[in-house]
Each structure stands twice: as structure tokens, then as C-alpha cells.
UniProtKB/TrEMBL annotation:
Cited Pfam families: BPD_transp_1, BPD_transp_1_N
Domain ABC transmembrane type-1: 102-314
Natural source organism: Solirubrobacter ginsenosidimutans
Xref: InterPro entries: BPD_transp_1_N, MetI-like, MetI-like_sf
Entry protein name: ABC transporter permease
Main subcellular location of this protein, as a coarse class: membrane
Keyword Cell membrane (UniProt): yes
């Protein structure tokens, strides 16, 4: 197991390097606007643009710019006092800005994950056990609706219906409540609606996915053997069926958590939540290349680390898995 983890960690370093290179090529080498012109303001003079380009290091060749950026990342102490690059728009190092927003994204992700697991898994198990019943049809029909609805659409509908400032039924805090919240209960209350919106589509996906896996698993020979031995149906379903059917769900959960930790861009933008996703959205609008690179790299880091964690968990969930 230790050798396997060591190999995976080496692969993580290589993968992050490739992602950094691809991001740099997309936003720096390909035509995407000049950050110096964007920072110079309206009707800039050529001299001002040239000065800004020299200050930001944009007058150097692309390979030198990329090497300098890698120098910001490798030691984790910054290149020339800069950490993860320097934001053109905010006049601040990127890494401290990301770390400042990380707790908000963690809080949003943790609440949404708990909510969609507590909804999606029971519904998936119930639908698999009651296949073809009216409960199964109703649950899968609702799940299909939530899967088909984009997150930004659900968010806008939720605000229109339930926000305490513009909603028709003002029962939940609106999209500016989190910014004004100071205590933990206030922040949790402000995230109730984003949690529900973010969890809706994920819970529907997990319910349908688990239902399909569990239906197939319950047809296996070892399930028939367990029933023939006189085990209760509850024990057969949960001890033998769900344990085998939930393994792919763990993979899906790891990837989803990694993606959300990298920034739930749509949810954070709709509800005006100051997380990593909102930070990346503003950077894209402002062509702030270092911030885009930093947020993409952080998101990739979370995804590959969650994938590694999932692979390790497999050995404990499924006895057949060995490394």
C-alpha cells in the first residue's frame, strides 16, 4: 500500500505540472486579451501599457514567464516574495486570497454533501427494493427533473420563491445574507438555500446511480445464498447488497467533492458567496491570468487527492481490492 501511495503522489506532481502548463498555454499563449491593457484603464497610452507589462513581467518571453510562475509554486515560499502568482486586479498574492476563501467553499461543500447523501442514498435503496412501485416511479421522476435542471436555474428559481428580499414566499435568507453574517449560526442559516440547490441535482444523480447498481447486485448468486441461509431482508439488502453496490458511489463522491472544493462557480455566483468559485469567476471576467491559474491548480489538486483517497478507501470497503 505504501509503495502504491508513493507512486500515486509522484503521478500527482506530474499531473499538476501538466495542468499548469495547459492552463498557461490557454490563457497566456493563445489570444485572450492583454492583462496590461486591462489594468491600464480606459484609453491607455502605449507608454503606460509598456510600463505595466514590464512591472508584471509580461514583456519577457513566454517560456521565461512560465518558469517564473513555476518558481512561485515549487518552493511554496514564493518567487521574489510572490505566492502562487500576483493578481493584476487585486494587487495581492493569489495564494493568501485563495486560502481566505477556502473555508467558505469547504463549508458550502460539506453541508451540500451531507444533504445529498442523506437524501440520495435512502431514495436509491428504497427505489431498488420497491422496483416498479409507485414510489419508485415518483422518486425517479422527481430525480430526472432535478438532473435536467441546471444549478443556476434552480438557484434563480429558489431566490425568486424563497429569498427574504425578493421572494414570493420570503422564508430564507437571500443572496447577500452570507456576506453580512458574522456568527456560525448566521452563516449556516444563510447557506440553507445554496445547500439545497447544490444538493438537489447531486442527490438525484446518486439516487438513480445507486438504484441501478443495487438492482443488479440483488440479482447476484451470493444474494440468493444469503436469503437461502435465512438472513433477514434488511440484513441482505444493507449488509451484502448496499455494501457491494455503493463502491462506484464512492468514486463519484470523491470526484464531486474534489470539483466542489475547487470552487462551485455557478452556486457561489448566483448566491453571491465569497468562495473560490466566485473568485475564479471574477478572475475570468477580468482576464486575471495568475488567479485563473491558481484556482485551476487548486481545483486539480483537490480532485487528484480525492481520487487517491477513494482508491485507498476501496481496499477497506471491498475486500476483493488489493494493491
Amino acid at each position: 500500500m505504501a509503495a502504491y501511495i508513493a507512486r500515486r503522489l509522484i503521478w500527482v506532481v506530474f499531473l499538476l505540472f501538466v495542468i499548469t502548463l495547459i492552463t498557461f498555454v490557454i490563457f497566456s499563449v493563445l489570444p485572450s486579451g492583454d492583462p496590461a491593457v486591462a489594468r491600464a484603464g480606459r484609453q491607455p497610452t502605449p507608454e503606460l501599457v509598456a510600463t505595466i507589462r514590464a512591472q508584471l513581467g509580461l514583456d519577457k518571453s513566454k517560456p521565461v514567464q512560465f518558469i517564473n510562475y513555476i518558481g512561485d509554486l515549487l518552493p511554496f515560499v514564493g518567487h521574489n516574495g510572490v505566492y502562487f502568482g500576483f493578481s493584476y486586479q487585486n494587487n495581492a498574492d493569489v495564494l493568501p486570497e485563495i486560502l481566505k476563501r477556502l473555508p467558505t467553499t469547504l463549508f458550502l461543500t460539506a453541508g451540500a454533501v451531507l444533504l445529498w447523501l442523506s437524501i440520495g442514498i435512502p431514495i436509491g435503496v428504497l427505489s431498488a427494493v420497491k422496483t416498479g412501485s409507485w414510489m419508485d416511479r415518483l422518486a425517479m421522476g422527481i430525480a430526472l427533473i432535478f438532473i435536467s435542471a441546471p444549478v443556476y436555474f434552480l438557484g434563480l428559481v429558489a431566490l425568486y420563491l424563497f429569498a427574504d428580499d425578493i421572494g414570493k414566499f420570503p422564508i430564507l435568507p437571500g443572496n447577500s445574507a452570507y456576506n453580512s453574517a458574522t456568527t456560525f449560526p448566521e452563516k449556516a442559516e444563510a447557506l440553507i438555500m445554496p445547500w439545497c440547490v447544490l444538493a438537489a441535482a447531486f442527490a438525484a444523480v446518486y439516487a438513480r446511480f445507486l438504484r441501478g447498481n443495487l438492482i443488479d447486485t440483488l440479482q447476484e448468486d451470493y444474494i440468493r445464498t444469503a436469503r437461502a441461509k435465512g438472513l433477514s431482508e434488511r440484513r441482505v439488502v444493507f449488509r451484502h447488497g448496499v455494501r457491494a453496490a455503493i463502491t462506484p458511489i464512492v468514486t463519484l463522491l470523491g470526484l464531486d467533492i474534489g470539483i466542489l472544493l475547487g470552487g462551485a462557480i455557478l452556486t457561489e455566483t448566483v448566491f453571491n458567496i465569497p468562495g473560490i468559485g466566485r473568485y475564479a469567476f471574477n478572475a475570468i471576467n477580468n482576464s486575471d491570468l495568475p488567479v485563473i491559474q491558481g484556482t485551476v491548480l487548486v481545483g486539480a489538486f483537490f480532485i487528484v487527492m480525492m481520487s487517491l483517497l477513494v482508491d485507498i478507501l476501496y481496499a477497506f470497503i471491498d475486500p476483493r481490492v488489493r494493491y
